[in-house]
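Co-fold these.
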Amino acid sequence: MQEYINDAMVELIKVHKFYPPDVKALKDVSLTVNRGELLFLTGLSGAGKTSLLRLLCRIEHPNRGLVEIDGMDIGKLSAKKMQLLRRRIGIVYQEFKLLPAQTVFRNIALPMEICGRQKSFIRRQIHELLERLGLEEKIKTRTGDLSQGEQQRVAIARALCNKPDLILADEPTGNLDTDNSQRVMDLFNERREQGATILIATHDARIYGLGRHRVVVLADGHIIGAGIKRDPSQKNDEGRA
Amino acid sequence: MNFLLTVFSRTGRNFLLTWPSQLLNLLTISLSVLIFSFFFLAYTNMINAGKQLGDDLRLVAYLDEEPSPALQEEYRRKILKFDDVEKIVFVGRKQAYARFKKELGTDRDVLTDIPENFLPPSVEVYPRRSLNSLTRIKRFSDYLMTLPGVLKVQYGREWIERFYSFVRLMRIVVILSGALLILTSTFMVARTIRLTLLSRQRELELLRLCGASSAYIRMPYFLEGALQGLVGAGLGLAALSVLFNWIKLQFSGSSLFAFFPFTFFPLPVIAVILALSTLFCAGGSFSSTRKILQV
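Predicted complex below.
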C-alpha cells in the first residue's frame, strides 16, 4: 500500500456532541486522520458515525471540543473561508441529498460549476465517473427516477468529481450490491492514491474488510477501538486491533 | 465567464421548473404596467393637447383709458407679482381698431362711420403654459379685475380651466397607478421568489454544503426578478400599444383625432418604464433572497 504523509488532515480533539433532550451522540472523541489516509469509522447504528461526519462538514457544531481540517479550526472559520474549504471536501450523504427534479448530469455537475470548472472538464469528469460506476446510460435521467442504488452511485460521483482533498462518505455502499461496492471502493482507493484523505462511515464489513487501512470503532458515542485492518490478500502484513 | 454562464443557465432552469408561478407573476406585472402606462399615456397626450389649446390662451383686461408708459410699467410689475407670465402686451385704442378691421376682412365697410377710438385699450396677458399657471387662471382673472382702471377681464375658453383641473386629476391617477406598479411588482416578485426559495431549501442547503458563494446562490434569483420585471413591462407596453392602435383605428377620421394628434410613448419613455420595472422587480427579489438566505 502507498504510505500516507504523517500530518493531520482531520483532527478532532475531545469532541462532545449532545442533542436535546439528553442524547449524547459523541463523548470525548479525539481522532486524527492523516493526509492521504483512508480511514473507516464503524460501529452499530446510533454509535455516532454520522454525527461525527456532520461535525466535519460543519452541518452541526460540537458542544465542546475542537474540530480541525487542514490545520484550521472550522468552528472559527469565516463564511468565506468555510465556502472555500467546502469546495475541497467531497461528501457522500447517507440520504444522498440529490436534486430529484434534475438530471444525473446536473446533479454531478453542481460542485464543479460552483468551483468554476470549464464545461469540457465537467463533461469529461462526469462521463468518466459514470462509466466507472456503470451509470453512463442514465446521464440524462432525473435522479428522482433512479433506484436507491443508482442514486447512491450518483451521490458518490458528485462527491468525487471535483477531485477533493478530503472525502467524507456516510454509508456509501449501504444500497449497493457486492460488485458495485467494489467499484466504489476501487474509486476511493484510486483517489487516496492520488493524495485524497478519505473518511468512510460504514457498518458494511465487506468494504472495510478489504485492503490495509485504519478502522475506528465507535460505540455509544465513544471510540472503543482502533487499529490497522490487515489486507487478507497480503498475508505477511501485521494487523492490530 | 463561467460564473455568468452558470448563473444564466440556473436562471433558465428555474424558469422552466417554476413556470406556472412565473407566468402568474408576469401576468400581474404586465397588468400593473398596462394600468400605469395607460394613465401615463393619457396624461402625456392631454398635456400635449393642452399646449395646443394654450396657443389661444390669453387674459384680456380692458382698461378705462390708455395707460401712460409709467402706468404700463406699474401694471407689468403688479401682474408679474401675481405670477410669472410668458408676455404682456399693451393694446391701444388705435391698435385695437386696426386689429378689428383686419379681422373683419371684406366686411370692414361696417366701420366706415365709426370713430377709430371706439374700442377700449387693453392689457393682454399670456400665462405660462405650465400646469400650475393654467389651473390658476380663474384666480389670475380675479386678480386682474382688482387692478386700477380695469373694466372687465376676459380669457379664452373657460373650459380650459376645467380641462387643466382634469389634467391635474390625471396626474394624481398616474402617481397612484405608478405607486401601484411599484408595490405590485416589488411585492409579487418578492413573494414568488420567497416561495421558490422555501420550496428549494434542499437545493440551497446543498449549494452551501458544496461551497457556493452568496453571489452564486443569489444571482440567479436576482436575475429572475429582473427578467420578470423586464418581460412583464415589455408585455404590458406591447398590450398598451395594441390597445392604443385599436382606439386610434376606431376613431380615425374623427375631428378629435384631427385636432389633437395623439401619440404613443417615444422610445426614451419606453426605455425608462422598462428600466424602472426591471429595477423594482430585481429589488423585490434581492430583498427576498437576503431575508431567506441570511447570507
